[in-house]
Amino acid sequence: ARQHPGAPPQFFAAEMNLWTRERLDLETRLRRALEAGQLELYYQPQIDLKSGQIAGVEALLRWHHPQLGTISPAEFIPLAEETGLILPIGDWVLRTACEQARAWRLAGLPPLRIAVNLSALQFAQAGLVQRVEEILADTELSPGELELEITESVLMRDIEGAAQTLRTLHARGVSIALDDFGTGYSSLAYLKRFQIDRLKIDRSFVRDICADPDDAALTQAIVAMARNLHLSVIAEGVETSTQQRFLCEHGCDEAQGYLFSHPLPAAEVTELIAAGHPL
Ligand code: C2E
Ligand code: CA
Ligand code: CA
Ligand code: CA
């Protein structure tokens, strides 16, 4: 490894050491977190822009560490992916989200879609379709109520295998959203080869939609393309009503973001679902 210019070598070595120790520590802690019940799903509403109603919710993982506080998934998902811990965690996420959807239905709330993020490792896992079917059967959820969110890069790892998995899931009635859309490669060429139901416009485009003509043009192009391909389209990271108006005017179907609601614990999002709309 190259030395940082000007930094005394022992300092650098000590820093590396600390980093490795922290990492190991985090891994051990994450391993225990699942059993200790420190993981929780939050849910963020997805809004139908025409009706203003909640069309679905995305399940987002939170880790409540007794000493470290709440740790963001951006920090521990990559580690969980590297260590394979994402498999049991992902399984728990899928089951918990479906159980929650069932609880909402049993409570008489209007039916809604539940979106669950799938990691690359989970998606490539041999028994994925079977696991999904098992969980749907156990929770008596209809497959149409479940949506799986995957990123373009997950699909590009093994194009043929991914296309087959998507065909199977699609045939079972589970819908697929392409997350962070616009940030990956080759998406256009491969779009029609994959059974996809929804495009999720990445937050980075939505952020500057009203200030940057390029981002506005890209967003418009994604929406137009989705419509032509008969795909649904949802924008993520919507924070202002100006962004909402732009998206609505250009034919975007749904939106998700702090403007409508932050991701919330189940009990709090239940109140929003019961009310039918977040505003
Ligand atoms: P993502 O799937 O792209 O999720 C959207 C992220 O944007 C969430 O961050 C959400 O809290 C945040 N967000 C929502 N609305 C807004 C907004 O208006 N403005 C801004 N600035 N941010 C907004 P979060 O919950 O920290 O999750 C980060 C990432 O961690 C997710 O990105 C996803 O890739 C991953 N992740 C979360 N939960 C799971 C999970 O259960 N399984 C897997 N495999 N990955 C997960
Ligand atoms: Ca997502
Ligand atoms: Ca996303
Ligand atoms: Ca994103």
Automatic annotation (TrEMBL):
| Limits of the EAL domain | 23-277
Q: What is this protein called?
A: cyclic-guanylate-specific phosphodiesterase
**What stretch of the whole protein does this chain cover?**
531 to 809 of 942
